[in-house]
Amino acid sequence: MTSFSTNILYFYRSIRSKIAFYPTLFALSGVLFAFLMMYLEQIGVSKYLVKHAPLLVVNSGDTALTILSACITGLISMMVFSFSMVMVLLNQAASDYSPRLLPGLISDYRHQIILGIYISSILYCIFILFSIQPTGDKYQVPGFAVLLGILLTVVSIYAFIYFIHNISETIQITNILEKIFLEARERIQVILKQEESMQWSFPDTNNWFEYSTDKSGYFQDLSRKNLLSFCKENDTLLEILPVKGTFVLKGIPVFRSKERLSDKAVQNLLSNFHLSRKELVSTNYLLAFKQINEVIIKAMSPGINDPGTALNSIDYLSELLRLRMLKADESFISDSEQNFIKLRIATFKELLYQINAPLRRYCSADIVVVQKLGQMFLSLKVQKVANPYYHDILKEEAKRLLIDARAAMSNEADLETLSFLAEKLAIKI
User: Fold this and answer.
1) 133-153 pLDDT, tens per residue?
2) How far are the Cα atoms of 65, 344, 418 from residue 201, in angstroms, in the given order?
3) DSSP-assigned beta bridge partners for residue 218
4) Is the entire prediction scored with pTM above 0.90?
5) Which of 195-204, 293-302, 346-355 has the highest mean pLDDT?
6) Which residue windows are coiled coil (predicted)?
7) How confident is the model at residue 313 (pLDDT cuts 50, 70, 90)?
8) Residue 6 pLDDT > 80
């Protein structure tokens, strides 16, 4: 895969998440289908159907004009209402849960397809309406094309019914959390599969040559195949410095090379780094932890005050942490023989601290949520891990949580619950 094809792939991933992606494709298909039907009408498809299936053809020009005009008006009304519902959905999700959830909701292909059906039907009916031309005191009616316009309107009505059903489910926080969890789980499982054949040796990189990026953005992804080919062609090894998902400023070193590289080689290598202004769970599983964590924090805020949502979110967070504990704190890109590229990733200690720190700040006064988090630590403590010291990290973060919770509570029953949790976790507070 060349750098050009890699950029095309990144561009496709970017526009596919736009709310106008599928509607644009459907709109073009509606226009093309209208011209196709005009061509078929010119070669006599309606005349053939009048002889063999007259019920499928609209013969009256006035009736055809009235039907198509009503279809266009109704479809535009449904489309406006549907777009309004999408905006309400996005506004509610941003205010009640987290603004980070918006890219995932906007990229929901079902909403885009339904809007695309509306637009393609409207454009089809408009072009067919224009094709009805007066000939003397009569109209030249594309009868079969008008019938298809009616059928497309019926399809749009059923799509509208499905849209109402789907959007009522999409706004539910459990469905939002499940979608985030499934995308992150799929990404982590891909990484775990790559680690099965991974080598675990790499030379020290402190004295290697550092090279910087010429633009800013979120470091989302890179082309593994291209980087591997680059290392072999230039007889060098690389270390990628930023962690996926972090914001990289222009001029900040982004990789180290064992061998000195020419300016052309550096530019060629940098073209395989994908820097973006937005974040997607499908390319960076760490974003899922951030999103779920923010949902918990927002739910525990005084303005929302929804501990039930926080408890549900902790369940999804627990499962993602269990999967992350199966992954090592190092990652490499290699062929069947050796490692050529070392990737810097967020270690389990860094990740758990970033998750637990805001939870300690916003949830330590609620004994129910603290108890749920304590159960999460208890469950993770007995799980299989890639490195034994993960258990020590869990114990340390659990201790910090219980200490902050004890400082925030004064009720004796709550303090007894904390003592019981500390005893089960083998922690002194």
Assistant:
1) 765 445 566 777 888 898 999
2) 74, 14, 43
3) 247, 276
4) no
5) 346-355
6) none
7) very high
8) no
Least confident piece of the model among 195-199, 246-250, 306-310: 195-199
pLDDT computed for residue 247 by the predictor: 85
pLDDT (0 to 100) of residue 48: 73
Q: What tokens were used for 230?
A: 């680059």
Per-residue H/E/C for the chain: CCHHHHHHHHHHHHHHCCCCHHHHHHHHHHHHHHHHHHHHHHCCHHHHHHHHCHHHCCCCHHHHHHHHHHHHHHHHHHHHHHHHHHHHHHHHHHHHCCHHHHHHHHCCHHHHHHHHHHHHHHHHHHHHHHCCEEECCEEECCHHHHHHHHHHHHHHHHHHHHHHHHHHHHCCHHHHHHHHHHHHHHHHHHHHHHHCCCCCCCCCCCCCEEEECCCCEEEEEECHHHHHHHHHHHCCCEEECCCCCCEECCCCEEEEECCCCCHHHHHHHHCCEEEECCCCCCCCCHHHHHHHHHHHHHHCCCCCCCHHHHHHHHHHHHHHHHHHCCCCCCEEEECCCCEEEEECCCCHHHHHHHHHHHHHHHHCCCHHHHHHHHHHHHHHHCCCCCCCHHHHHHHHHHHHHHHHHHHHCCCHHHHHHHHHHHHHCCCCC
Alpha-carbon distance 286 to 343, whole Å? 15
pLDDT at position 2: 47
Q: What pLDDT is attached to residue 13?
A: 61
